[in-house]
Amino acid sequence: MRCEVCGREIMGSPNYRVIEGGKLTVCGQCAQFGTQEWDPTRPQARKTPTRRRSAQPRRRSDIDSAESLELVEGYGMLVKKARQKKGLSVEDFAKSIREKESVVKKLEKENMNPPMNLVKKVQNSLGVNILEEGAAKSGSVLSRPMGPRTLGDMIKIKDSTKKE
Ligand SMILES: [Zn+2]
């Protein structure tokens, strides 16, 4: 069976996707172009959206955006100042975000690599922003992982499989 979008042989089980209004049988790569699934075993379209979520493709873009965020320079001082502005002691602040005092101290001294959930809690609690896009900094995150295929890539694939 061949993919009706890129024309390649479908490896494994085919994906049934509604793409631009048409019911197509496509490969895993092209499945992402379809917003909806259609079920070949059911003759009539159902009104309820499909409940099967297990076969969803991984959501690369979400992961990317989380990874590319970095702590701003001097974030420890920013946290400390924001905390003091609110008149909170280290102890009070630690309690308010359900963390240990030692964690807050380390964070303010930048003696730790704070996990994202801690950073989020601190930001929400103090109303400060201590994250920035990593790409804006000294090129540390320049080599981004491969994104999904663009339409241009797909046309290239189509051409290269046209030999027969
Ligand atoms: Zn395909």
Can you walk me through this structure?
- The structure is a single chain.
- The chain is built from six helices and five strands, in the order E-E-E-H-E-H-H-H-H-E-H.
- By secondary structure, it is an alpha+beta fold.
- The strands form two sheets. The chain has a three-stranded antiparallel beta sheet, with no helix packed on it. Strands 4-5 form a two-stranded antiparallel ribbon.
- The longest helix has 11 residues, at 75-85.
- The chain binds zinc ion (ZN).
- Zinc ion binds at residues 3, 5-6, 8, 26-27, 29-30.
Based on CA atoms alone, the radius of gyration comes out at 24 Å
Euclidean distance between termini CA atoms:
16 Å
Low-confidence regions: 61-66, 136-144
Structural class: alpha+beta
Largest sheet: 3 strands, antiparallel
Write the layout of secondary structure elements.
Layout: E1 15-19, E2 22-26, E3 36-37, H1 60-67, E4 69-71, H2 75-85, H3 90-96, H4 101-108, H5 116-126, E5 131-133, H6 151-160
Antiparallel strand pairs: 1-2, 1-3, 4-5
Helix pairs in contact: 3-4
The structure holds zinc ion (ZN).
Keyword list:
164 residues; binds zinc ion; two-stranded antiparallel sheet; 6 helices; elongated; alpha+beta; 3-stranded antiparallel β-sheet
In short:
The chain is α+β, with helices and mostly antiparallel strands and 164 residues long. It contains six helices and five strands, in the order E-E-E-H-E-H-H-H-H-E-H. A hairpin with a 2-residue loop joins strand 1 (15-19) and strand 2.
